[in-house]
Each structure stands twice: as C-alpha cells, then as structure tokens.
TrEMBL record:
Residues 194-289 form the Glycosyl transferase family domain. GO terms for molecular function: glycosyltransferase activity. This is Glycosyltransferase. The lineage of its organism: Bacteria, Bacillati, Bacillota, Bacilli, Bacillales. It comes from the Bacteria. It comes from Siminovitchia acidinfaciens. The keyword Magnesium does not apply. Keywords: Transferase.
Length: 316
C-alpha cells in the first residue's frame, strides 16, 4: 500500500527520550509500510544535520527536519501529526488542521491531557486505565519494543559484578536512591553492599553495563511502561525494585524479577539483604526474564502498528 500524498509529521522525533524514539519509529512505519513522506518537526531553531548518528539511540537522522512554523505552512487535511502527551499544553489537537495521533507513553509529564486528537494509543494497561478513568478515553494498547540487536545476554552470570546497577537519568531516581541507601545502612550497619549509578549513556553502553552486572535496581516511582528494566532482562541482568506501575505488563514478582510496591523500603531492603548475602540467588530469574523480554520485539511492534494504521488512518 502506498500513500505518497499524505505527509506524516513527528513532533520532536529526534529527541533524546524514549518517547521521542518510539514516535520516530512509528513515523518510520508510516513511511516504510504506506509510502508517506516523513518529516521530523522541531520547535527549536537549531537543526540537526542528516546522516548523523543519534547520541543515545541506535538510528541515524535520515529524514528531513522542519520547524513547527514551516510545518504549519505545509499541512493538508489528510496529513498525519504524531505526538506524545508531554506536549499537551501546546494544544495541537485544537490548532492543527490535520489528522492527529497521540502515542500515550506516560501520565505524569503533562498537567492536563489534550483531548482533541483523533487517535489515542497507549503503551500499557496502566496508562490505558488512567486515561479512561480521568478523561473517558480508552486507547488501544500497543506496547513498545526493545532493540534486541543491542540488548542481548552476552556474559555468563558468574563473570558479572555483584554491585547493583542504577540508572539515574531521571531526576527523582537519585533522591529515592539516597533515601534507600541511608535506610539500608541504618537497618544493616555491617552491610558491604555496593551500588553503581550511571547516567548519560547510549543504548550500546547501557547494554554493556547490564552485561557487567548481575542486578539492576529500578527506583522510578512512575513510568508509562519503562524500557530499562526490560532491556536489563534481555541482557540477563536480574531486576529488583519498584514496578513503576507501567512495568506491571512484564514484571512478575519472583518469576522474572524481585518487585515491591512503590515506597515499600522495608521490603526492598530485605530483598537487597538477601541478594547481598547470596549474590547468585537471582540467577534463577534470568531465564524467565530473557523469555519475557523476547516478546517485546520490533517485529511485533511494527505488525501491531501496521494493522492499527491500516484500520484507523490509511482507510480511505
């Protein structure tokens, strides 16, 4: 199927967050499967050069980038605009005279949802249920994917560090970790447990880190889905911590991870103590975790989105 007359515009498609990465891939499906010309839309004056490599994610800047003002001059009624809820306060739903699709990747990055889009799709049951309860919109669920060409189990368990790896790229992870660390030391004063907190790494660097460690400690209170725990699981790195709510679609306590309720530092500290005294206890989770992660492939993501777009967008 080809629709070269319908342009597709992805807002902030070259951004450095997971939501931008997923929207870029969605736009790419529109181009690859339906032949639509694809443009990345920026709101800043600085323009990226084509053929550069994204500093965090594994793709190049292969599609032209236009400023938002230029896009508004170009749009036609049948064109498609793709965005995430973070930009709800820009009220594109009311302003733009074109078809609009929102990929719902979270609930806490906007004060109020722009309810004037034509299509809404959610990354998880958690996001779907929240949006339905608050805004009376029930989006279809299409889960994200992880890059299995990068996130692979390459290192035998016994060769990995016992230090607990933490990804601190989101601001609230650090204060939560600091509180947990203090709580743990007070509860177990003779503890020798070690943590390694990292930030600002690419996907390839993160995969290497997962393969160097037995455990990944996830402390984010709330995510729409949460890619890093799933990426850790694909690398054979056992996950311990909060499910971040969105992670409930793939984190199953004592089956493929050690998960506690958000804020339950007492229970989390107990699991950390068990791991400290027996660092190999989590090895039994890894096989199931790798199997879980395998279901979240790009092939599945592309297939589900192609079916959705055929039915709801490219249906005329």
């Amino acid at each position: 199927m080809s629709d070269s007359k319908r342009n597709v515009y992805v807002f902030n498609g070259y951004g450095d967050r997971g939501g931008a990465f997923l929207n870029f891939q969605l736009g790419r499906i529109c181009h690859k499967k339906f032949g639509s010309p694809l443009f990345m839309v920026r709101n800043l004056r600085k323009k990226r050069s084509l053929n550069e490599t994204h500093p965090r994610f594994d793709y190049s800047f292969e599609f032209p980038e236009v400023h938002l003002d230029k896009m508004k001059e170009m749009v036609k009624p049948d064109d498609l605009f793709i965005c995430n809820p973070t930009h709800s306060t820009k009220w594109f739903g009311l302003e733009l005279p074109m078809k609009k699709l929102m990929y719902m990747q979270g609930i806490n990055t906007y004060p109020v949802l722009d309810i004037f889009y034509d299509h809404y799709v959610s990354v998880s049951h958690f996001v779907q249920q929240h949006i339905e309860k608050i805004y009376n919109i029930k989006p279809q669920i299409i889960s994200p994917f992880i890059n299995h060409s990068i996130f692979q189990n390459k290192t035998p368990w016994k060769q990995r560090s016992n230090d607990l790896l933490i990804l601190g790229y989101k601001g609230y992870a650090r204060p939560v970790f600091q509180y947990l660390q203090q709580y743990y030391k007070e509860k177990y004063p003779t503890s020798y447990i070690q943590f390694k907190i990292v930030d600002g790494v690419s996907q390839k660097e993160l995969s290497d880190l997962f393969n160097q460690h037995k455990y990944y400690l996830t402390l984010n209170p709330c995510e729409g889905f949460g890619l890093p725990p799933l990426e850790a699981m694909a690398c054979g790195c056992a996950v311990v911590g909060f499910d971040s709510m969105g992670g409930r679609d793939y984190l199953y306590h004592e089956k493929n991870a050690y998960i506690v309720d958000y804020g339950d530092f007492e229970q989390l500290a107990e699991y950390l103590r068990i791991i400290e005294l027996d660092p190999d206890i989590g090895e039994s989770l890894v096989k199931e975790a790798i199997g879980t992660a395998s279901h979240f492939s790009y092939s599945r993501f592309e297939t589900e989105w192609t079916k959705y777009l055929e039915k709801h967008v490219y249906n005329d």
